[in-house]
Amino acid sequence: MGENGTTLVVGATGMLGGLICRRLADRGVPVRAAVRSVSDPERVAALRALGAELVEADLKDPATLPPLCVGASAIVSTAEAVGRQPDDTLDRVDRDGQSALVDAAAAAGVGRFVFISHSTNVLAVDTPFERAKLAVEQRLQGSGIDHTILRATFFTEFWLGPPGGFDHANRKVTVYGDGTSPISFISQDDVAEFAVRSLDTLAARNAVLELGGPNPVSPLAAIELFEQLTDETFERTFVPLSELKSQLAGATDPMQESFAGLMIAYARGDAIDMGPTLGRVPVELTSVADYARRALGATG
Predict the structure, then answer these.
(1) What is the DSSP letter of 145?
(2) What is the maximum span of the chain, computed from C-alpha positions, in angstroms?
(3) Is residue 242 part of a domain?
(4) Domains in the chain, number
(5) Is residue 194 included in any domain, yes or no?
(6) The CATH number of the domain where 86 resides is what?
(7) pLDDT tens-digit profile of 182-209?
(8) Which residue, 97, 123, 208, 282, shows the most beta carbons closer than 10 Å to its own?
(9) CB environment 70-101: b (16+ within 10 A), e (fewer)
């Protein structure tokens, strides 16, 4: 992982970034975590408890990025605009900020860079979010840094959890489209593991890797699985693809437009053949059934 082995995680106070920091710390890798003055204090405290070096920086402020990168041998970036602040925009964070981070990394001589992007099928839905991801991918590919681009599909914990409208605790689910198109849902834990392993896996160097779960599952099949495990019927609310397209056309801001695009991609499905990726970076994948049992065990 380079001369001094310090890995910088940008997006460290997010859920995925925190998982990556923990995995690195568990492996004895020195971790530098980028934090902001507005970061969640509890998540900052958790990073400090891991022994991470905390450095205040903000992707929206390019001047903070060169000092952040100096002395790091590798970078993993999971950061995305979260909208907590009025100026947390897709352009300023996901496009310009991430691009400035790549430039700062190149200038500092960082040897490795792992960037979390979206799967090819999701990127195909033209929205500000996806355009930002593609712009950073291109910036990274032209930077001269050894890199890995992880194109992850829909996160299980979000899209088969309450944030994505899958309220398994209350047995109510919002289904985008007709729910029949298979998706290779992937656990955030597995994405974190791919990110960490990619840092020192030769076969992952300068590669674009598609990330999904062990097998594609349609949203309706996921609901049926939860019903079998609970022996209860879940209430389904369908949002037709035509309505999602209307939401996209009528979106009044980039975030709204981008989330409508994500729901359209979800409705269309995203089945991923993981053979090529696992051939490069072997990771034991979490199935939807594994997640369902864990989620129901936590909520009852």
Answers:
(1) S
(2) 57
(3) no
(4) 1
(5) yes
(6) 3.40.50.720
(7) 999 999 999 999 999 999 999 999 999 9
(8) 97
(9) ebbbbbbbbbbbeeeeeebbbebbbbbbbbbb
Cβ neighbour number for residue 257 with a 10 Å cutoff: 19
Quote the domain boundaries for residue 69. Answer: 7-154+187-212+271-283
Question: Tokens 């910036």 — which residue?
Answer: 139
- Specify if 175 maps to a domain: no
Closest listed residue to residue 262, CA positions, set 189, 187, 164: 164
Cα–Cα dist 76/176, whole Å: 31
Q: Is 71 helix (H, G, I), strand (E, B) or coil?
A: coil
pLDDT in tens, 264-285: 999 999 999 999 999 999 999 9
* Residue for token pair 């022994």: 51
Helices marked H in 166-274: 188-199, 219-230, 241-249, 254-268
Residue 290: alpha-carbon gap to chain centroid: 20
Assigned domain for 224 exists: no
